[in-house]
Amino acid sequence: MSWPPFFTLDLVERGLLPDGWEAMMRPLADAPEREAISMGEVDWSFAVLAADVLRERLPWLWRLYHRELRDFASAAVGFPLVPCNRLRAAITLNMLSGTGALTDWHTDRTAVTAVFFVTAGDADGGGDLVFRDGTGREARIAPRPGLFVCFEGHNEHQVAPLSTPGPRLSLAMLYFRSKTADQQPAYDVDVYDIEDIAP
To answer: Is there a domain that residue 197 lies in?
Structure first.
């Protein structure tokens, strides 16, 4: 396994983001469609906004996910990727708020998981995306607006606890090796035509 196990692309530097993209993103953190995820008895919150809303309000993001970002991730890991076939799960705006907010160590059932940072991390490393291997070796990446990070889903990772109230905003994107073999099928409102992406 190569170390660190992630690949980065500066979307701002590459000119892949529209003017005013941050101003378009921030109001979504308060969108009425956001879904709170119960984390038990904690003093912080985790909420998500699903891809159906993001596709409608940020069509440029939907195109990036299906084209340039998928192509970069595929080239980085060295094998072809396809987007998630479930509309709502393809991209989510993840919102961590409150001092101590984090995600526990976990792996993903994806070929590749990608993260597009909307906000910066805390100056002391709170909110960093942290990876570790079986020996306990760690690698960290500090969030900064417009940075895209991708990694194979089997790599163990977490979000380090926030040291400020936040919020920490990031977009999680899911990619797979095939349309059917390694991902759950789509039903009802989750069905969309992957081939029908506007130019």
So the answer is: no
Structure tokens, 180: 């059917």
Please give the share of the chain, as a percent, with pLDDT higher than 90.
85
Model pLDDT, residue 199: 54
Per-residue pLDDT tens for 144-194?
999 999 999 999 999 999 999 999 999 999 999 998 878 888 999 899 887
Q: How many domains does the chain have?
A: 1
Flag whether 142 is in a domain: yes
In a domain, 53, yes or no: yes
